[in-house]
Amino acid sequence: MKAELTKQLRRDEGEVLTAYPDHLGYLTIGVGRLIDKRKGGGITAEESAYLLSNDIDKREAELLRRAPWMANLDAARFGALLNMAFQMGVDGLLGFKNTLAMVKAGDYAGAAAGMLDSTWAKQTPARAKRISDQMETGAWQ
């Protein structure tokens, strides 16, 4: 039954993988999934965790594909780079050429200083301080 209903709902509701206003103007996503707060829509904590896990996995795979040397980093330092990639995208992170060269060379204090001397740090100073500390110390912040 579920397979047939799924097929039917995809046909009748349509499937849109970005947020869009439905015929009444309420934000919807996927197959008729109401996410508009005005009508009590949203997602559950479990759905948010699932999406976050998928997003982390995608960023990790892309970083390791484009900068395979990162696989040699300890978990906390690789996590710092993933955190940055999550915020600014992989391309944004890979734009930190000097900082990444220092990370690759094991100069974590230099890399942390480079992270703090950036537009990113000016835009999100508290986050940048935590993540640069994590890079320097190798301890999760």
What can you tell me about this protein's structure?
The chain has seven helices and three strands, in the order H-E-E-E-H-H-H-H-H-H. By secondary structure, it is mainly α. The protein has a three-stranded antiparallel β-sheet, with no helix packed on it. A hairpin with a 2-residue loop joins strand 2 and strand 3 (33-34). Helix 4 packs antiparallel against helix 5. It is elongated and about 55 Å long. It starts with a helix and ends with a helix. 16% of the residues are buried.
The counted number of beta strands is 3
Instruction: Note poorly predicted spans.
Output: none
Q: How much is the average pLDDT?
A: 96
Structural class: mainly alpha
**What's the overall geometry?**
elongated
Q: Strand order across the biggest sheet?
A: 1-2-3
Number of helices: 7
Beta-strand share of residues:
5-15%
How do the SSEs run, as a string of H and E?
A: HEEEHHHHHH
Distance between the termini: 48 Å
Helix content, binned percent: 55-70%
- C-alpha Rg, in Å? 20 Å
Please outline the major beta sheet.
Answer: 3 strands, antiparallel
